[in-house]
Amino acid sequence: MIPQLTAEEMAGLLTPAAAADALADALRAGVDPEDCPSRTALEVPGGQLLLMPAATGAYAGVKIAGVAPGNARRGLPRITGSYLLLDGPTLRPLALLDGAALTTLRTPAVSALALRHLAPAGPPPRLVLFGSGPQAYGHLEAVAALREPASVVVVAREARGADRLAAHAREMGFEARTGTAADVAGADLVVCCTTAREPLFDGRFVGPGATVVAVGSHEPDARETDTALVRRAAVYVESRAAALREAGDLLVPEAEGAIGPGHISGTLADLVAGRLPVGGPPNCPQLFKSVGMAWEDLAVAVALFRAAGGANSET
Question: Please, which pLDDT band fits residue 72 given cuts at 50, 70 and 90?
Fold first, then answer.
């Protein structure tokens, strides 16, 4: 039996900030997201099965995730799965991690790393948070660790979920309430963590100094942001190849003729390497669009494994 890390064990091993550090370290060590294997998606009766493999010299790993939209009716998580971490040189299994918990940690960490460079300083931001599921909670924690918000507005399809998340934000010490899509007009930071397939708000109302993070979709015909926002924003992605394959937030406007592939201003690797100005251009909104990538899962899984006291053949 290989060691297993449960969701409860993983929660105490790594903060989103520490996971963001692991992602930055991976990029500085030479990981090239443009060469990362693409996600394999298989339609099944219950939803989708996703297969996400990645490897470096020291480690390899694969996440098998299930996306089951009907699970909400059953009182079960929408995202399920496991992550198998392997020793790189020998491909010997090292650990089995809870895949849903890994995703819940990895995605806010990716957003936090981008925000370190796109929104690194200034007064406490007014945060508008779309969604009320695990990713919304994780992103609230990640944003709070980076820059404590002056206020939090939660916008969600289900009123009870929005109320619970707003109450949680107040317990964290923040001024918080539920709101509507119109609240983006007063936001410094907008974070979208939903299962929406159509835009959540009117992008014309987002201020020129605001930063928008969208993480909820990874399909070419699904998006959380609209063409109006994408057209006027400086756009950043994890990988150009992945974004032009999976990011409906960009592919739909491109299909409409509103933007071209060159509309992307830069990548996460560009930001970490300092190839782009900190804070981005001041005269337009900034949009970071994440689809989730296998190299990110591997980097965070390795950090969790090491935090738990694990070692591979090169240690």
Answer: confident
- 122 three-state secondary structure: coil
- Contacts for 112 with CB less than 8 Å, ≥ 6 apart: 16, 17, 19, 20, 142, 143, 145, 146
| Torsions phi, psi for 44 (to 5 deg) | -130, 165
pLDDT band at 78 (very low <50, low <70, confident <90, very high): confident
- Residue 310 has a pLDDT of 84
User: Six-digit token pair at 282?
Assistant: 């001041």
**Two structure tokens written together for 90:** 């020998």
Q: What letter would DSSP give residue 124? A: P
**Number of Cβ within a 10 Å radius of residue 50:** 21
Q: What angle do CA 152, 146, 135 make, to 5 degrees?
A: 60
- Please determine, for residue 53, whether its predicted confidence score (pLDDT) is greater than 90: yes
Distance CA 35, CA 205 (A): 36
Q: What is the mean pLDDT of residues 130-148?
A: 95
H helices of the chain, where?
Answer: 7-11, 16-28, 99-118, 134-146, 159-171, 227-232, 240-246, 248-255, 268-273, 294-307
Q: Please, what sign has the CA dihedral across residues 32, 109, 131, 153? A: negative
Q: Which of 229, 291, 231, 218 is nearest to 260 (CA)?
A: 231
Closest-CA residue to 295 (of 60, 14, 131, 100): 60
Closest CA to 116 of 249, 226, 19: 19
| Residues 287-301 pLDDT 10s | 999 999 999 999 999
Predicted confidence at residue 75, as pLDDT, reads: 85
Q: How far is the CA of 33 from the CAs of 96, 132, 178, 224, 286, in angstroms?
A: 24, 29, 37, 23, 21
Average pLDDT for 84-108: 96
Among candidate residues 157, 251, 166, the one with its CA nearest the CA of residue 195: 157
DSSP 182: G
Query: In the block, which residue shows the tokens 């993480």?
Result: 215
